[in-house]
Amino acid sequence: MKQIILDESNFEATVDETVCAAQAGELLLFPTDTVYGLGGKAFSRQVLDKLRQIKPEREQKPTAVLIDNIIRMSQCASDVPSRRIVALTEAFWPGPLTLVWKLSQVVPQEFHPPDDSLGYRMPKSDFLLEVLRRLEAPLWATSANLPGHPPPKLFSEIHSSILEASDVVIQARTLLSGKSSTVVDVRGREPILIRESGIREEDIKRVWRHA
Prior knowledge:
Layout: E1 2-6, H1 11-23, E2 28-31, E3 36-41, H2 45-54, E4 64-66, H3 70-77, H4 83-92, E5 97-102, E6 117-121, H5 126-135, E7 139-143, H6 160-165, E8 168-172, E9 182-185, E10 192-195, H7 201-210
Parallel strand pairs: 1-8, 2-8, 4-6, 5-9
Antiparallel strand pairs: 2-3, 3-7, 4-7, 5-6, 9-10
């Protein structure tokens, strides 16, 4: 396990190292704008196997990715988002909003959840956005906590077993918000709130109505 404390002095070097690690299929532990996340390059068998070693009781596949622009969302879904979905991304991305939308058959079936959906989010993190831009691919991301424990906003809250199982650990000097993203299913005619957190349901519906 390699541990890096991210700050302005090593920003570029840490981005380069993170991109290389992701391309190699390594498991990453990293700060987002909300909580610490655990993941790696999306749709990687190697990363999936490592995630399941940490959470063996978790049978489902990772269901959310971090992206750097809406084009990645279109690529994964093989479709163009509706004007209402675009309006939500323009209003709340980058930020704490996860949009549940389609997952195309372009992605191998072994990585599809049962309902062929995927959560998409653009994080409000200069570090992650630069990693994603250079990687030119989404990152799988799940909160870096064990079942039954809250998502960690402090590095000290991360369980030692998760740290030890990660290939590259990136620690932020700044405090994260600690609020998980609001999750909204946008596959239908109306948005369906799955989890309300960083963004209020009424704000989601207001943007949707006026799009």
